[in-house]
Amino acid sequence: MKFENSNFLWVFLTVAIITAALFYWVFYRRKQIIENQFGTEVFKRLMPTWNGKFWPKNTLYFITGLSLIAFSLANPQWGNQSSKVSAKGVDLYIALDISNSMLANDVSPDRLEKAKKSLSELVDNLTGYRIGLIYFAGGAYLQMPLSADLSVAKLLLKSANPNQAGNQGTAIAEAIDMAISTFEKDNQNSRAILIVTDGETHDEASITSAEKAKSMGITVYALGVGTEKGGPIPYGNGFKLDENAQPVNTALNKDLVRNLAESGGGKAYFLDNQNFGLSDLVSDINKTSQEIKTTETYTIKGSYFQIPLGVGLVLCLFGFLWPFNQKRNDEVI
Q1: C-alpha angle with apex 297: 291 to 298, nearest 5 degrees?
Q2: CA–CA distance, 76 with 1 (Å, rounded to integer)
Q3: Which terminus of the chain is less hemmed in, N or C, by CB atoms within 10 Å?
Q4: Domain residue ranges in the chain
């Protein structure tokens, strides 16, 4: 057995100790008050139906119940639950531009959000693929290695934002090189890279990296996001300004996007305020698929926090109801 949130075990111990100490103090004070105000024998005659043992039992229910509720926060896990995911023999890295220029709203609501929504739809159409994520701005960052668990890819895409970049820029070449180096060399799956960017760079190294990928049997596709008219880059409460205190305009570099795809042996697609050819992109990627089948097995432990939580709630409820179940007893409190 293991605990998903082992730090909460301290909460469990703290609740048990504090609750036990609190009830002990209450019982001690009650005993003092009874002895000082009435005396034990007088109190027994005044309260002939009082059950002298029900308080200790009540305490046990509350202490145990509250402790089990705290224990459930640690989420005890045991056993193994395995699931298998079959892949189609295609490994695809999605390299997403998260630079500040992707926040321009010449595409509604902005370039990055539009790209994330479209990529989520793309992932939905790539069931059985292995997908990895690389984010890039001034540098490239491996966000998710190749995996057939596409739900994780969609979750990570949803949270992508420029704050995840260490510095600003558009390091397309570094993103391609990272994908190349991360692909498993002995894997026979088809390999592809999808660059998603507004292309705001004139770095010839990106073309060289795309040509290198093609020479290694890796197809490079490019998805350009934005419009040629462009728009200002949001910055703080306004826009990024140039040396003349004028808003900096960022426009889609279509030529770079096309050159990237051509150099990498793939095709270029463009995403503006209209829907792009999602089905065409899926079809093109599918053409690279080989008849090789791979399988990934994920083994996880089952979570059973419901058991201590349910038992704890029942014991607490029973503790509340127990005082009403009195019976005649001559035992001393």
Answers
A1: 140
A2: 7
A3: N
A4: 2-75+305-324, 84-296
Q: What's the first-to-final CA gap in the chain, in angstroms?
A: 41
Question: 281 vs 255, which has greater pLDDT?
Answer: 255
Closest CA to 201 of 241, 246, 253: 253
Mean pLDDT of 169-174: 86
Q: How far, in Å, are 194, 214, 292 from residue 186 at the CA level?
A: 21, 17, 13
User: For residue 233, is pLDDT > 80?
Assistant: yes
- According to DSSP, the β-strands at 231-232 and 294-303 are unpaired
Q: Which of 147, 116, 155 is nearest to 129 (CA)?
A: 147
Residue 93: both structure tokens together: 């890295």
**Across the chain, what does the average pLDDT equal?**
80
Q: The pTM is what?
A: 0.61
**Who contacts 93 (Cβ-Cβ below 8 Å, separation ≥6)?**
131, 132, 133, 134, 146, 179, 182, 183, 192, 193, 194
Query: Is the pLDDT score of 320 beyond 90?
Result: no
